[in-house]
Amino acid sequence: MELIGQGIVKAIELVFGGDSEVWAITWLSLKISGTATLISLLWGIPLGIALALSRFPGRAIAVALVNTGMGLPPVVVGLFISILFWRSGPVGFLELIYTPSAMIIAQVVIALPIVAGVTMAAFQSLDPNLALQLIGIGASKRQALWLLCKEARLPLLAAVMAGFGAVISEVGASMMVGGNIRGQTRVLTTATVLETGKGNFDAAIALGLILLALCFALNLFLSHVQQRGQLKWPRLS
Description:
Layout: H1 2-16, H2 20-53, H3 59-69, H4 74-85, H5 100-124, H6 128-136, H7 141-151, H8 153-168, H9 172-178, H10 188-197, H11 201-228
Helix pairs in contact: 1-11, 2-5, 2-8, 3-5, 4-5, 4-9, 5-8, 5-9, 6-7, 8-11, 10-11
């Protein structure tokens, strides 16, 4: 308990003391994971909608790949991305290994199936007759799709939370493709592992608490938006 207390004190000192390195690590974590989440949303939501509403040859295989990807171990992603971008790898000439760009790509691979899977489940939970009713009253296919997105907006917020939560807290792939280089690819998770390995448990706890605070703040905001849009049930008592 004393060690945890020291970590909390250390976290307060690092945050409110204006420690430049901690702020740089925090900003880089948000930049990398935020970019990866945004890319995953831009690709994953249309993919999930297509899988939910369309029927085409090979759909079952695509759905199975998405469901498998939702549980893909980050360290396996890191392994294959590292091999891909290694200097002697297939695209080593791009020189992306141990860069923030490689970390973003790895995190997109992790988050994309999660976003697509949650989106697919959200649209499959809608009333199957809703789209037909919208088309029947004169809505175009684009208008019907937009109205279906509005109907599924609450589960889609869950896709945002799940995707961001998966990558901001990920360490294996980030360590393997980023290298945990100080001032370049060191993020909150890899910095926490480093400080733990050095025996600096107060600094590790402090970095972990900062990471938890970031996740909580974002999820609190998104949860507030999500809960505000829910139906208010009457009291049963």
